[in-house]
Amino acid sequence: MPLTHDNILSNERAIIADFNLSNADSIIAFLPMFHSFGLVVTTSLPLVTGVRVVHHPDPTDAKAIARKVAAYKPTLIAGTPTFLGYILERAKSGDLDSLRLVVSGAEACPPALFEKMKRAAPKAEIVEGYGITETAAVVSVHRPGAFKPGTLGQPLRGVEVCVADLETEEILPTGRMGMLHVAGPNVFPGYLDYDGPSPFREIDGKRWYIT
Question: How far apart are CA 33 and CA 208, in angstroms?
Fold first, then answer.
């Protein structure tokens, strides 16, 4: 499944605009680069922003990651709730004090993990996002200061979402449950060597990805 340079860079431009990243920031990067979350957020994003990176090759090696956070004092961390939970279990008091932003994604984050992170990283703001590989990793994320428990934030700049009824395909009003559709410059061009049903739907002249 291909992602274009434009797909990836559109996500990164939106993240830069809303999260005030600068070369004063640094990130602890342990997500695998073959996964879209790791490729876009902790590999290529630092390259285009000037954010320094502290790499660690094994996301399950929580004790070593906690030690690196304590030693190098990065300001940013992004990971799955599972990996973040491992780090919290291994971190000692004060190890995570340098963090200003914690981003959780790829899985639903349990409320207990948020509370534990608040205690372990008292200076950090904790946000949660939602994404899939076909959208260059990110569809929506809480903006700083706008976290709302039980939600996955707002769509990135330039990204549109709508929800369709599973049976009638009617576009539903806000608050109704159905199939999420996504449109925007981050949406992939289509699967390689694929002859199945189209993953896209045309609505009023606009192409939507059916998640």
Answer: 27
CB contact set of 66 (below 8 Å; sequence gap of 6+):
87, 90, 91, 92, 95, 96
pTM: 0.88
Rounded to whole angstroms, how far apart are CA atoms 121 and 101? 9
User: Which ranges constitute the DSSP H helices of 20-110?
Assistant: 36-39, 45-49, 62-72, 81-90
Six-digit token string for 141: 């994320």
Q: At what angle do helices 81-90 and 62-72 cross, to 10 degrees?
A: 70
Residue pLDDT, tens place only, 139-164: 999 998 888 888 889 999 999 999 99
Find the distance separating the first CA and the last CA of the chain, reported in whole Å: 14
Cβ count within 10 A of residue 46: 21
Q: Which amino acid is at 6?
A: D
Helix (H, G, I), strand (E, B) or coil at 118: helix
In this structure, are strands 101-104 and 200-203 parallel, antiparallel, or unpaired? unpaired
In the block, residue with structure tokens 């004063």: 24
